[in-house]
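Re: that backbone. Tokens:
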């Protein structure tokens, strides 16, 4: 597996030898001092170029990065938005284990966006086209303090959508339950846990994508409880996990509400949990809910 030093030399060599490449910068975990260092760290590399079209039209140039094991062209996805003229990427897994997420970017796009990500670090600027940047940090990824309206929206969304979990579990529609639990309800739980962590760190902390750094900041008991909210394909185990999710959300939202002095409707939560418990006991041939 090529070392970081070898990869940086390769990136610089390609940039220096290609007159179409005007500047180069890196972002992501490699510039984040708070990210764990391990063998799976990829290289989030951006070349600022005069035009993206030549790089898109003749893709043989990416062969210089190594032998590709498999790759993705995210901007070619038929249903996702893209701006190929200004920002285009290749996500490449190489046969030696190295992964590079490579993008070419127009000067105008770089100038409009590079300051938005505090993890950007300029590695090369041939013509001085990029603005000076502060030292890389994860500042732009810190948990943001919620407004009371945002807090209440999270609170209501969580409890309302447990209704969907209830009917999905009673019907034993596990694909629907999994989607609702992980893509909707869990996101509100993640948000609430993130706010709790943010309060404890004066909102100067990143919990990582999908809360991947929760284990750093939650107590051992809280983190174990959070992991217990995941479930497989068994209905009873799913019910147990959903009830655990509700318990964790209840205690966390009460804590956040108290610290931020935001109101919450505890009775709504209690009624939602009672509804869940009631539906769990309904026989499969029930003709009425109540």
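Recovered sequence:
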């Amino acid at each position: 597996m090529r070392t970081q030093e070898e990869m940086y030399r390769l990136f610089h060599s390609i940039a220096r030898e290609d007159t179409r490449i005007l500047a180069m910068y890196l972002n992501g975990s490699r510039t984040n001092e708070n990210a764990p260092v391990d063998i799976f760290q990829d290289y989030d590399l951006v070349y600022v170029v005069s035009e993206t079209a030549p790089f898109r039209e003749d893709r043989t140039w990416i062969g210089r990065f190594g032998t590709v094991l498999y790759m993705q062209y995210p901007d070619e996805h038929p249903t996702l938005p893209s701006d190929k003229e200004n920002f285009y990427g290749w996500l490449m897994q190489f046969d030696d284990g190295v992964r590079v997420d490579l993008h070419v970017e127009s000067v105008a796009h770089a100038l409009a966006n590079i300051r938005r990500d505090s993890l950007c670090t300029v590695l090369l600027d041939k013509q001085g086209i990029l603005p000076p940047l502060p030292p890389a940090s994860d500042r732009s990824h810190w948990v943001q303090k919620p407004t009371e309206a945002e807090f209440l929206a999270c609170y209501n969304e969580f409890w309302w959508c447990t209704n969907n979990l209830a009917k999905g579990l009673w019907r034993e529609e596990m694909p629907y339950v999994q989607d609702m639990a992980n893509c909707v309800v869990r996101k509100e739980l993640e948000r609430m846990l993130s706010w709790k962590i943010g309060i404890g760190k004066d909102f100067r902390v990143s919990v990582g994508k999908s809360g991947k750094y929760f284990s750093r900041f939650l107590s051992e008991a809280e983190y174990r409880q959070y992991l217990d909210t995941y479930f497989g394909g068994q209905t009873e185990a799913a019910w147990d996990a959903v009830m655990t999710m509700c318990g964790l959300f209840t205690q966390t939202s009460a804590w956040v509400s108290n610290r931020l002095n935001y109101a919450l409707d505890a009775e709504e939560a209690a009624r939602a949990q009672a509804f869940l418990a009631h539906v769990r006991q309904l026989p499969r041939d029930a003709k009425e809910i109540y």
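Strands lie at 21-27, 43-49, 68-72, 87-94, 99-106, 121-125. Residues 4-140 form a domain with the Beta Polymerase; domain 2 fold (CATH 3.30.460.10).
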